Please model this.
Amino acid sequence: MSAPITPKEYRVDPSRLAWGTWCHTRDRQIGEGDISASYSADKIGMEGKVRKPFAWQNALWVCTGMHSSGDFRAAEAYRLVPERFFGGTPTTYNEVACLSAAERFKPESFYHGMRVRSGKQEFILVGPSVKFLPKEDSETLIQADLFDFL
Model:
């Protein structure tokens, strides 16, 4: 059995992780961040599809888990790769779910190698998963006031 892989962590603007608020008037979520909006674990399991992916470091990603504690939020995500660029053997959620617990959790993580659809295109989720965390206050860039030089 392989040792677990420690997931990489990336710091992003906290607004990208925001859950937003449901607006009954507009019948949709308002103020939801792009990472949160891409949450697709439910759709992957039920339909083999993902919601609109988010962009990070010149790649498309999809969120498979959100974690929170108070105001702190974090997301777990996998990279989306067109099927023709995936070097392994693709699988589906149903095939993985039918495996024994020992077989199901591979070093690259649960969703690695799963075939999904985004729009009309076929993609593969590639692991290991990555964690997206909010930037610390000291990491947040603040725009200078126009008249700071006076």
In short: The chain has a mean pLDDT of 86. The helical segments are 34-37, 41-47, 93-97, 101-104. The two ends are 64 Å apart (CA to CA).
